[in-house]
Amino acid sequence: MTKRLDGRVAVITGAGSGIGLATARRFAAEGAKVVCVDLDEETGAKAANEVGGLFVQADVTDEAAVRAMYERAVEEYGSLDIAFNNAGISPPDDDSILTTGLEAWKRVQDVNLTSVYLCCKYAIPHMQRQGRGSIINTASFVAVMGAATSQISYSASKGGVLAMSRELGVQFAREGIRINALCPGPVNTPLLQELFAKDPERAARRLVHIPLGRFAEPEEIAAAVAFLASDDSSFMTANTFLVDGGISGA
Ligand code: NAI
């Protein structure tokens, strides 16, 4: 039976852990050739090995490295069909407007927002040449609602990802390139576990607001990414795709 992503070439950033890792597994199971990008050599290489793909070690804030990772994907597999721009970091400790320092603010914008700008900038020309492509940028539910968790630099970075995805989705629609923003609710990954370890009561406070009454598993987010990557979502672009257990609808 033909699989949904048969023959498609996908580059995933942050593929060594959490949502990126679950998506690498899901894409491979759906037939894609997967390029796993991560700053962390050990986890990135492990992920690539597991899914039978290629590992490229890159820092997504480094312009030359981002450009090179897409060139490497095309060199190895012949095209670039899917870019899942997903690498990101959690908020700094006590990320309140009153306490977050300028350096911490800039670091979060660099890794969470500027990286997506760079990934889109260098993925799109490959997709223009092919006349098709699907880009999924990881934002967050905090891009669409105030979450009152004092994570100002993080929320601002994700709002930027959402606005940029909509803008680019509209701009490149007529060239066959679909660009959507993925907005997960809280997902059980090392990123979230790290936040809860610093503030154990945060988990309980957060759970109260999730109608489904639990955190997502990374595989549930990966299923949504596979949908956005595939032709099953062929009439969707510039979309805000919430996979959040109902948190933004409550
Ligand atoms: P994670 O911490 O499990 O995985 C993130 C991966 O990105 C790691 O493998 C890390 O090495 C890599 N990475 C970090 N900085 C990098 C850089 N400069 N260059 C290359 N790779 C880098 O995190 P998780 O939870 O899987 O998060 C993935 C994305 O989903 C992030 O953008 C995050 O902000 C977003 N998100 C996560 C939610 C959650 O509750 N876990 C909720 C909403 C959005």
Task: Quickly describe the structure.
With 250 residues, the chain is α/β, with parallel strands linked by helices.
Write a structural description:
The chain is of the alpha/beta class and 250 residues long. The chain is built from eight helices and seven strands. The chain has helices spanning 18-29, 41-51, 63-77, 102-130, 152-172, 190-198, 201-207, 218-229; strands at residues 9-13, 33-38, 54-57, 82-85, 133-138, 177-184, 240-243. A seven-stranded parallel sheet has the order 3-2-1-4-5-6-7, sandwiched between helices. The longest helix has 29 residues, at 102-130. The chain is globular, with a radius of gyration of 17 Å. The model has no long low-confidence stretch (mean pLDDT 96). Bound molecules: 1,4-dihydronicotinamide adenine dinucleotide. The site of 1,4-dihydronicotinamide adenine dinucleotide (NAI) has 28 residues, from helix 1 and helix 6. 1,4-dihydronicotinamide adenine dinucleotide binds at residues 13-14, 16-20, 38-40, 43, 59-61, 86-89, 111, 138, 140, 184, 186-187, 189-192.
